[in-house]
Amino acid sequence: MSCLFCSIVSGDVPSNKVYEDELVYAFYDIDPQAPVHFLVIPKEHIPSAGAVTPENSAVVAHCFEVIAQVTKELGITDFRVVSNCGLQAGQSVPHLHFHVLAGRDMTWPPG
Ligand code: AMP
Ligand code: ZN
């Protein structure tokens, strides 16, 4: 099965890396929706937030540690974390990812 974000993790598809460790990869979104917009993904293929289980949830916690660390390093204090799950919610890549958006005022609720 081919997956765009698995190909980014393997390096087969180039990306603008923000952070990497053994479990997690983070890179700037190709179509930014805010002055700062990057994605944090588990290296393991998890299809969406709806596929998180007791067996794989540790990497989700780690994603949030990475979000806290990277935003701090970038000097960002105010940001939004979004994970779209399913087509109706706007998920276009079926590999779990957390959008991190910052640098502008945000509206609520999201559209
Ligand atoms: P979603 O629509 O919530 O599934 O988010 C997928 C995100 O991946 C979108 O914001 C896209 O702009 C982004 N994206 C798609 N292809 C790439 C790529 N090759 N490099 C970086 N970001 C990408
Ligand atoms: Zn994948």
Summarize the structure in words.
The chain has 111 residues and is an alpha+beta fold. It is built from 2 helices and 5 strands; from the N terminus they run H-E-E-E-H-E-E. The protein has helices at residues 4-10, 57-73, and strands at residues 17-20, 24-28, 36-42, 80-82, 98-102. Strands 1-2-3-5-4 form a 5-stranded antiparallel sheet, covered by helices on one side. A hairpin with a 3-residue loop joins strand 1 and strand 2 (24-28). The longest helix has 17 residues, at 57-73. The relative contact order is 0.22. The model has no long low-confidence stretch (mean pLDDT 98). The chain binds adenosine monophosphate and zinc ion. Adenosine monophosphate binds next to loops. Zinc ion binds next to helix 1.
